[in-house]
Design a protein that fits this description.
By secondary structure, the chain is an all-beta fold. The chain has no helices and two strands. The protein has a two-stranded antiparallel sheet. A hairpin with a 6-residue loop joins strand 1 and strand 2. The chain is elongated. The chain starts with a strand and ends with a strand.
């Protein structure tokens, strides 16, 4: 079980976005 929480501004390939990502993997 793994919980990852990201809160930052990032620039993905092919575009730009800012916000938060919450990934919950079991």
């Amino acid at each position: 079980d793994e919980t990852l929480v990201y809160t930052a501004d990032f620039t993905p390939v092919g575009g730009s976005a800012s916000g938060s990502i919450t990934a919950d993997r079991a």
